[in-house]
Automatic annotation (TrEMBL):
<protein>
    <submittedName>
        <fullName>Uncharacterized protein</fullName>
    </submittedName>
</protein>
<feature type="compositionally biased region" description="Low complexity">
    <location>
        <begin position="38"/>
        <end position="47"/>
    </location>
</feature>
<feature type="region of interest" description="Disordered">
    <location>
        <begin position="1"/>
        <end position="54"/>
    </location>
</feature>
<feature type="compositionally biased region" description="Basic and acidic residues">
    <location>
        <begin position="1"/>
        <end position="28"/>
    </location>
</feature>
Length: 179
């Protein structure tokens, strides 16, 4: 019985020594990588080296194998099309589509939509190809009342010219007609 315990203790000491030797080799390897110019060549090793090796901390690999937070939000093709639809719908209504406005519209239309935060929606919009561009504070002249009336006059003149016996030709983005 006593011999069995001594054998177990001896095996445990051997395992502990093997672990220490392995840690020492790992510490030497990391020290060599951290301080490549301070290497010294020595053929003998003393007990002081082992004490220094044990005092040097060694980074251990993380035991975490996967992401521990919430799972990623995956969108189906229909949900991706829903995002595109609402962005283009706000543009058609001449409203600047912010992520908050688009998210409010989507959630009002579909309360079971998988995205609930503006940050997640913004990330998905980036994946779908939408880019953020700063808008200028200048009023767009094409939307001004003067340009809209000029455009309406232009189209009525062209319609009259096409319906009549006049010949029109285009020259350098302007048109001329003979009456």
């Amino acid at each position: 019985m006593r011999e069995g315990q001594e054998r177990i203790m001896e095996e445990k000491r051997m395992d502990d020594q093997a672990k220490r030797d392995k840690e020492n080799e790992a510490a030497k390897g990391t020290r060599r990588l951290r301080h490549p110019r301070s290497q010294t060549v020595s053929s003998t090793s003393s007990s002081n080296d082992n004490i220094m090796d044990l005092a040097t901390p060694v980074a251990r690999p993380p035991r975490k194998l996967a992401h521990s937070g919430r799972p990623r939000i995956g969108l189906s093709e229909q949900e991706q099309e829903n995002i595109r639809y609402h962005v283009h719908l706000t543009l058609a209504e001449r409203i600047y589509p912010t992520t908050e406005k688009v998210l409010n519209r989507i959630l009002a239309n579909d309360p079971n939509f998988s995205i609930r935060s503006t940050t997640s929606l913004w990330r998905w919009m980036k994946k779908l190809g939408f880019t953020y561009k700063r808008t200028s504070k200048v009023v767009v002249p094409l939307d001004a009342l003067f340009f809209m009336t000029a455009r309406a006059r232009y189209f009525t003149d062209i319609d009259e010219a096409r319906s009549g016996d006049t010949k029109s030709f285009w020259h350098d983005e302007t048109w001329c007609n003979k009456k």
